[in-house]
Design goal:
five-stranded parallel beta sheet; alpha/beta; 30% helix; 9 helices
Length: 315
């Protein structure tokens, strides 16, 4: 069996492959170090470009299974990809711990007014004030209760927060005080202090956080997006941040990435911008490799794979 491996993960994976497998490496531009034509399995790299994906599909027409290390697959489900009969699996579950920790970072950054404390330190000022907030007993709404949303809930409950969630089927989940359907989450906005966007980007969720949603939020509320930039109407969000509809935002993802240097998000005082890095820890790559190798064993033995993507639903 021949595999196509991304250059950024190949060194970790190759020593662990079964002896009867062969492999070809591919870089971020779709250049191979060998002949990929007989490959049956494709593990794509990080930040996969459409052009690279399409080069691989054209060069390796026998691919039957593709695994992506990302949880989101909106960048893979192109018309060209959908023309092929390829089983797609994703990295759902491997990002939950670091992203959940980062969400707590955003909330604490806001609650403890870290930027003001840093300004005081820079100016050598010893000033105490009592406006710092606690996360305890604050209301958190997590839009999307997949693996990332559930890890966020675990940590939020440890801080004593009231955790609400939104999902297609509003079945109860551990660490959530309330679960509502995907059509009901807006009714919770007037009572929550933090809103976390953790849902996949699909045609139904594009622009989900719009001006109407932002106007429903408290003026003291804080929006956090660790999912995909296009889920938020960024023009509406800029207006909300400038005019004080909400208190601020922690944004790890944007519609255009890298975020252009002239974007107003960089300089807004009530925005914490991070470069789509909330999942990036050394442990992440180990989890990616472990999941892929487990699925490879399943694939070779004809067993069901983990994290099969519903290509029609988009996740």
């Amino acid at each position: 069996m021949k595999l196509i491996l991304p250059v950024e993960l190949a060194a970790k994976i190759e020593p662990l492959l079964p002896r009867d497998t062969t492999f070809v490496r591919v870089d971020n531009e779709g250049n191979f170090d060998g002949d990929p034509s007989g490959a049956e399995v494709y593990l794509n790299g990080f930040k996969l470009k459409n052009t690279t994906l399409h080069k691989v599909l054209a060069a390796a027409p026998k691919i039957r299974w593709q695994h992506t290390p990302s949880a989101g697959v909106n960048h893979i489900l192109t018309p060209v990809f959908l023309e092929h009969d390829i089983l797609l699996t994703n990295g759902s579950g491997v990002h939950g711990i670091p992203i959940a920790e980062f969400v707590l970072t955003y909330m604490l950054y806001h609650a403890k007014d870290v930027s003001k404390l840093q300004d005081l330190q820079s100016n050598h000022q010893w000033i105490k004030w009592s406006e710092l907030q606690e996360l305890y007993n604050k209301n958190l709404l997590i839009i999307g209760t997949g693996s990332i949303g559930r890890e966020i809930a675990v940590r939020a409950k440890a801080f004593g927060m009231n955790v609400f969630g939104s999902r297609l089927r509003p079945d109860p989940l551990p660490n959530f005080d309330l679960i509502v359907s995907a059509d009901e989450w807006r009714s919770l906005l007037p009572q929550v202090d933090y809103v976390v966007v953790a849902t996949p980007l699909t045609p139904k969720t594009r622009g989900l956080i719009d001006a109407d949603a932002l106007r429903l939020m408290r003026k003291s509320a804080y929006l956090i997006n660790i999912a995909r930039g296009a889920i938020v109407d960024e023009d509406a969000l800029l207006t909300a941040l400038r005019e004080g509809w909400i208190a601020g935002a922690g944004l790890d993802t944007f519609s255009v990435e890298p975020l252009p240097s002239d974007s107003p998000f960089w300089s807004l005082p009530n925005v914490f911008v991070t470069p789509h890095s909330s999942a990036l820890t050394p442990q992440l790559r180990d989890r990616i490799v472990e999941l892929f190798l487990d699925n490879l064993t399943r694939y070779r033995n004809g067993k069901p794979l983990r994290n099969i993507v519903d290509k029609k639903a988009g996740y």
